[in-house]
Amino acid sequence: MKIIDGKATAAEIKSEIAKEVAEMIDIGKDVPHLAAILIGNDPASQTYVSGKEKSCKEVGFISSLYKFPADISEKELIKVVDFINKDDEINGLIVQLPLPDHINVNKIIESIDPSKDVDGFHPLNVGKMVLNLPTYLPATPYGILQLFERYNIETVGKNCVVLGRSNIVGTPISILMSRKAYPGNCTVTVCHSKTKNLEKICRSADILIAAIGTPGFVTADMVKKDAVVIDVGIHRVKSTVTKSGYKLVGDVKFDEVSKKCSYITPVPGGVGPMTIVSLLRNTLKAAKKEVYK
Ligand code: NAP
User: Fold this and answer.
1) Between 2.40.128.50, 3.50.4.10, 3.30.420.10, 3.40.50.10860, what CATH number should domain 27-113 receive?
2) Is position 52 annotated as part of the catalytic site?
3) What is the pLDDT, as a whole number, of residue 293?
4) Topology (CATH) of 139-272
5) Considering just the CA atoms, what is the radius of gyration of the chain in Å?
6) 174 lines ligand 1 (CB under 6 A)
7) What is the pLDDT of residues 182-228, one digit of tens each?
8) 3-state SS string over the chain?
9) How confident is the prediction for the chain on average, in pLDDT?
10) Known active-site residue 54
11) Catalytic choice (14, 96, 117, 224)
12) What residues in the chain have per-residue pLDDT under 50?
């Protein structure tokens, strides 16, 4: 069994991006600039946004944070998005999710200029992803693809089972794994809360991608011998072993599944670090006008 080291891979990609940014500066090009909008005081969202700002700094990007209280109106928020859309010095814009209930998330996503939508959530960019056209791929699925590539994991003709169908992980990764491309060319089955015989379907997987949001959902008896297991889940659970009294676990029971599979991503240090790196990659693409001229 081989552990897929997302932390090391992310560090490698970050240094490649940093090198590219230094070269851009050398030839007089503008430094890539990512703007983030953060609404309210959700601690998890604050942690994610500060992680993104820190990563921007590490690779030499400029980052700007636009913070607003949870009671900002939808109209006001759209005005802010519009203001950033028109700012030529900003290449990429992300709106940290989730948003307060009174704001329609789809309306906000659709208000982002697709050329700055480095989260890859705008319907136009999702459509381009489906058609295999140049676009910004959503960060977590893009991170998973980069892990397959960097570890030279064969995907053609494999049975890939995706657990979960969320807009940010399950649905896009299922589309990407079925595309006529590498990584891809898989026969994909998507499972969700209405799926029957889920365990049996999982046992048919050569590649199992778990994005279900339940700690330790995938057990060894659900995994085929030598399968590739990608664990997207992140959960903070109580622990008697750590000093803090908490530890991070995934959707997969790592201890038992790792004994049976050929490759596995750990939690933490697997898919998580690759998500931020993908956002950096998309921002670099935006600055270099690789997707929208
Ligand atoms: P989500 O929006 O909660 O979606 C969960 C999906 O799993 C839904 O499609 C749901 O089905 C399905 N599901 C839930 N319980 C099920 C069950 N018992 N049997 C079968 N299907 C079930 O989750 P998400 O946003 O995709 O996130 C999934 C996990 O990944 C979470 O732990 C999240 O924290 C983590 N995550 C990690 C990263 C990262 O960077 N590593 C990024 C994003 C998310 P229905 O559609 O039928 O409800």
Assistant:
1) 3.40.50.10860
2) yes
3) 87
4) Rossmann fold (3.40.50)
5) 19
6) no
7) 999 999 999 999 999 999 999 999 999 999 999 999 999 999 999 99
8) CEECCHHHHHHHHHHHHHHHHHHHHHCCCCCCEEEEEEECCCHHHHHHHHHHHHHHHHHCCEEEEEEECCCCCHHHHHHHHHHHHHCCCCCEEEECCCCCCCCCHHHHHHHCCHHHCCCCCCHHHHHHHHCCCCCCCCHHHHHHHHHHHHCCCCCCCCEEEEECCCCCCHHHHHHHHHCCCCCCCCEEEEECCCCCCHHHHHHCCCEEEECCCCCCCECHHHCCCCCEEEECCCEEEECCCCCCCEEEECCECHHHHCCCCCEECCCCCCHHHHHHHHHHHHHHHHHCCCCCC
9) 97
10) no
11) 96
12) none
Is the minimum distance from the CB of 234 to ligand 1 under 6 angstroms? yes
The pLDDT value given to residue 38: 98
| 80-93 pLDDT, tens digit each | 999 999 999 999 99
Distance in Å, CA 83 to ligand 1 centroid: 33
Q: Is 81 in the pocket of ligand 1 (CB under 6 A)?
A: no
Q: Establish whether residue 166 lines the binding site of ligand 1, counting it when its CB lies within 6 angstroms of any ligand atom.
A: yes
User: Given 5, 14, 116, 119, which residue is catalytic?
Assistant: 119
- Nearest Cα residue to atom 48 of ligand 1: 193
* Structural domain spans, the chain: 27-113, 139-272
